[in-house]
Amino acid sequence: MLRRVAISCLLAALALPAAARTRPHYGGTLSVEVMGNPLANPGGLARRLIFEGLTTLDSEGAVQPDLAVDWRSSEMDHRWQFTLRSGVRFQDGSRLTAAAVVNSLDHSCRKNCPWSDVQAAGSDVIFTSGSPMPHLPALLAAGEFLITLTKGVNGLPPRNPVGTGPFKFTSNAKGVVTLAAYGDCWQGRPFVDSVEIRGHRSIANQWLDLNVGRADVVQVPPEMLSQARQQQLTVAVSPPVTLVALELSTAGALANPKLRAAIAAAVGRGALFNVIFQKQGDLTAALLPQQLTGYAFLFSTKQNLSKAIALRGSIQPPLLRLAAEGHGAMQLAAQRIVLNLREAGFRVQMVAGDPYHADMILRGLPLAGNNPAAVMERLLLSAGQSQAVTADSPAALYRVEKGVLDRHTIVPLLDLPRAWAISGRVRNLSLRADGMPNLADTWLENAP
Amino acid sequence: MSLRQKLLLFFSLTVAAAVAAVTWTVLVRIRHVFEERDRQETALFVSQFQREFQHRSEEVAAAIDRLANSEQARVMAYKIARTGDTAPYLTTAQTMAQNAQLDFLEIVGANGDVISSAQWPARFGYPEPAVNHASKTPFLKRENLPDGSTALGLFAVRGIAGTPAIRLIGGLRLDRSFLAELPVAPGMTVGLYSDAGSGANSASASFDATRLVGATGPVHGAAAYRKLIEKARASGQQATGVVYPGSLPQDSVTATVIPLKNRAGAVLAVLTVAIARAGMISAQQHIRAAAYGIAAVGILLAIALSLWITARVSRPIEQLARAAEEVAGGNWDVSVPQTGRDEISVMARSFNHMTRELVSQRERLVQSERVAAWRELARRLAHELKNPLFPLQLTVENLVRAKGLPEADFDEVFSESTTTLSAEIANLKAIIARFSDFSKMPRPELQRIEAKDVVERVRTLYERANQDGRIRFETQVSDVSMPLNADPELLHRALSNLVLNAMDAMPDGGTLTISACPKGDKVELCVSDTGKGLTPEECERLFTPYYTTKQYGTGLGLAIVQSVVADHAGTIAVESREGGGATFVITLPKAES
Hints:
The complex is a heterodimer of chains A (448) and B (593). With 448 residues, chain A is an alpha+beta fold.
């Protein structure tokens, strides 16, 4: 018996440190490195930590209250009323009011908004529109509509970004955005004291910093997932959250729908998926992922050069300009598309700089959410095609999606996940619905 | 052209021609020297270029060899051969090219498709035909790049050790950096023209001046190289010529173009070697400037020499010429200076002697003519006076003999004799009056008259006198106005004399025509007959005073006519042929309207 007790005590003593490691504790500075600008609107990681939306998506993609605790629609979804959470304060101490929310939304969404008017009514915010807004709560969870303080206590715009999120902006120096834990956050203080986000860092350098302990969380592009695993990195991978698609202009040289259809047929998705993105994500010709709709397989992903040539016929369009957002694989994919299109008889040139003057843009569109119609509406809004998607069945949704695809203004190519490599001292790192790390619940193992 | 001008021209041309000949010879010689130097420098550069090219080829071959034998390549090739999965090696070529410091590198699978490309990563899966015809030796190849451009490179192909079916094809770019490493002599610039097209079409592709680049950037005046480069691309042979990249001759260069070919013999690029001609142009300009200076000095000397020679030679000749013109103008009393003892002075002395002789002879001739005139006048007077004197003598002798006759007979004889004497005396008076009239021709009193009126007046007068009608009168007068500034009486008298002469010339009858017609600013008055006409000798002497063809003429009629016509600033001429009548033409100036 004594022997058993001794053994039990010994085992308990051995297990104590391990248990201590799994317990959350405060303190420490979390170092994160990203390729882009941490403060970029809408996808910057720092924005997600400083600001919050009226709603948010949980890890399953379901819409959850955030700064708004309740919402209801009326007038056939032409009017939405959101009730704000009480007691919320901005990081400068000012209260979150309906007027502040309206100012923020007016500031962040000047055109192509899902609503036509937004008003404050007491502690409520009322959205109205001439067209129905069936998925407005889901749309308000998007990064574009995070609530920022546009007027400080002195009535002037604050010099630094101010929100209600778990971290507040401290500094932006030498490419490093420093955030401090916001103790008065309505969700409670985050575990880490501060977060340093180093932007514009190449993947090679991020991984190097991770290996030498200078970074805790770094990006893993989808095409490098296999490589990361080969290098024994701890990787957190989201489900597909980005649709890589080729957006085609309906003006200029591509005003002819036959030419757009020819381009859609000429693109070889196989090479993009197998080689450039190293078989990560899903090959797709649909706007929404297969797991969300179940019918994505109905859209053919095969390259059909002969069809493309036939569709182009004798039309000799002028030199087409193709731009690509992002780096690395996206640029390489764009080069591959140029090759595909040249095979189909198009003259195409890649252009850098302002992508909005290009005839074609290769970019990632958001796929976050568990409501297919809402995801599609959000995706179309990101592509500049504001359209209310009302579908009460998969068949109806399919018809809507096919209608969109038949315009050949968006050519879906791949559904890609978002992945992050984390150091051994990072604990409880979860990914949000959009694949961004949820650093508010993360703590550091060796924090003081 | 004067002798002075001829001499000046001769000396100037001689000097200019001599200077031009020397200058041309020197310029040609200089050009030859510079061209020979350019040829030697170009040949030297070409040989250095070939050595550098060979060196680069060896570098490329060695680098590809090292890569093909590297552990990384062998492992990769083994895994590809084992799994057939080429996707993980998408960026391998970039890494290997970077490590080997190659500009181009592609990993090509056994099927000839690109597995990984350093220069165009997106080109995986596309065939690379160059590996199928690869040899051990490096070769030139035009490589397509993602931005649509092409680059010329020196390539080598090697199979990866252990898995030779998987090959590496890579190389170095031949561009500005390559040109910058070439040893270039001062004044020499090198450029590389590479075509945008590919394969056999490159030779027929149009020339694009922007594709000619030098070691430091675009070649100045690249468009000027067009002909030479197109010639080299078409023929595949080296060509040389003078190129003018700028507007000034100093900017010109002696350019040699060397075609760079691939293994199939197609021209992929053209190397241009340009040597500035500024030195030669500058030397030529200096020589030309010196030649112009020498020619200018020579021409000035020629002018001075010609002036000196003309002062010695042509001036006496000019003086002689001017004196001769004076003599020709009637002034015989001229002489020229005669200095020295040369041929010109002899000529001047002879000229002066000639003019003195001419003056002397003219004086003697005038005297002899004056004597002859007096003799002619005496003869004429004697002849004229002799005719009436003979009847006077007979009448007086008859009166003397009649003295012895009875009174009645005497009275009859006396009466007849006095009648005869009176008639002959009257005849003598008439003769004397005609001579007096000739010596006392009055000055014309000019007034504006119409030629038509003068003609009509003469015709009316003499048509009435021609009562027997053996002579037919005709007048031909123009309808236009023919005003004359003339003395009507003198002009009438002159025309009357001509009409009388014409009537005398037609004793057996004929046609007498009086006409008046305008001739520009003159008026012609003509009197024509149909008589026997005049011989040429008679025509020549007709207006000589006291010359007559008539038995009883004084020879003063036509002289008076000529005098009247001359007083009216006119001329008179006679046209006649023997047996064909005669026409006297008086030409008088038309009065101003």
